[in-house]
Write a structure and sequence with these properties.
With 199 residues, the chain is mainly α. It has helices at 15-33, 40-47, 51-58, 61-86, 91-120, 124-145, 156-175, 180-197.
Amino acid sequence: MNAAPAAPARQRLPRGQRTRQLLDVAWALISDEGSDALSLGRLAEAAGVTKPVAYDHFGTRNGLLAALYEDYDVRQTIVFDAAVDAARATLQDKARVVADSYVACVLTQGREISAVVAALGGSAELLEVKRRYQQAFIEKCEGIFAPFAGRDGVPSAGMWAVLGAADTLSQAAVDGDISEAQAKDELRSVILSVVKRCA
């Protein structure tokens, strides 16, 4: 009779390292099984920890989804900011870098971030997390494009239009409806149109 495979030995990790491990496992679960299968119990099982560990880190499934969205945003903001800072100080170059970076960031996480964003729509708590990051992106873009706009800058409505286009075009690229290059080119055109209207 064969013995059952031994369970992986549990290792005590510092809180920050354990959080990183749990987030990495959660991203893998979403990729493999979809966001509907993601629960704190399933996460604990896949990570080789007890359920109380997962609950201690995230509290609820919504807390886990919010942490995943924040994890994605923090990682991509670093990449985005570096690209924008390295771009030449011209409207064309800033628009190109913002468009390229946004689309590339979404494609980097692919369907996983789409699943998290869709799940974020499920509660007021999660909508607030998403809204906070949307507002931060809009404010960042207003600052990036202010030197190229008129005295009043780019109105918020224009930046919301850019964000809507960015989300829709990126999702279309993730879904394979358009190419990555098409998404980037069209988003750059939208940004240029919005900013030039204000000059």
